[in-house]
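Lab notebook, bench 4. Still working through the backlog of constructs that have no structural model yet. Next entry is a single chain of 458 residues. Request: give me the structure tokens for it.
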Amino acid sequence: MTIGDYLRSLKGKTVAVLGIGVSNTPLITLLCKHGIRTIACDKKSRTALGETAAELETMGAELHLGERYLDDLSVDVIFRTPGMRPDVPQLTAAREQGSVITSEMEVFFEVCPCMTIGVTGSDGKTTTTSIIAEILKAAGKAVWLGGNIGHPLLCDVEKMTKDDVVVVELSSFQLQDMTRSPHIAVVTNLAPNHLDWHTGMEEYIAAKKNIFLHQSKDDILILNADNETSAPLAPEAKGEVRYFSRKREIENGAFLSGGTVFHAVDGKRLPVVEENHIKLPGQHNIENYMAAFCVLRDLVEPNIMDEVARTFSGVEHRIEPVREVRGVKWYNDSIASSPTRTIAGLRAFDDKVILIAGGYDKHIPFTPLAPEIIAHVKLLILCGATAEAIEQAVRDCPNYHGSPEIIRCGSLRECVETANARAQRGDIVTLSPACAAFDQFRDFMERGRVFKEMVNAL
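Model written out:
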């Protein structure tokens, strides 16, 4: 089915789009442009939406706003926003009355005319997605980057050709009820995350599995052989499975041995890049590159992979250098919204750091983070809803004997001011929260931008 076919199938029907934000506004625009009756629904008031409300009405959209925005969803098709559980009572009722519940990403996979590569996981998915896209661009491919990174892709489908390549980052929220999978799927790793949204770890893993459960026998799944939760998923794959590993040689995939990253095809090894030539710091980024190499083995020459690994400086908010102030280096790792991401970030530095952490509570235990903080942090500065829980986890750790010192602050600004006052020449300060940002900021990107503004104003 083409995007034209899909839009024609909606003629004469009523479509509701839940959520008027960055991801859904282009979708609303697309539907209105093709003369489809569209109801734009959002919890925000008309005042809070500002000029957007009038702009959408000018396009022809009907607005359903306020606290009761999900009431009376008597429509043919509903586009669920990723952050909304598919089993909320109003959606369940609409489904029972005959409404089709879908999403921008679900429809995109249905109408996309070219190869799709999807990346999910608890850690590393943004960097891995970006690495794949960078290598493809370096190889001269026309690349579309989207999903949970970049911008919505459904509105770009009409511009795509069969020779293009789409690379998407997919969150568990997007995958929760997906019934389509990309041609090549990557699961970077699995660890507890978003347990405030999912009913538990079992549901979280089940959502992630949708990235490959709907593949065909001709498709490919890439798994982390070193991750005890994701590696056992292989028997459920319908197509080829490739692995990557830092710890052992792999027959089919990629592995690290003697300081070199190798491709492996039927047990035959081919060197790709030297470990110490990879520009991005940290062992986790070696894993991200190996996952990307597994994806691109049949699409890109090894010398191009090597060149990108030597030059690509990473994505915003992931161990991002901000500036050096009086001999103190500041880093923005705001994308580290779970303990495992923060652990990877801490291990990327050779020396002990001043760590700013804390934020929204996703009900993830901080016990595994505590010994890493003790091993890699010289001063721990905490704020946000989880500050008490992180401090308690560190103090309860058997290895804790008063170091690092722990300071609580009331805001991110106070954290930055405290770090600036305490840091000495040669120190490293990193914002690596181990938590989501929703207690104080809209998302990790806003948190990271605010942090950089504060640091640049020092």
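Notes after review: The chain has a mean pLDDT of 94. The longest strand covers residues 268-274. Flag for follow-up if needed.
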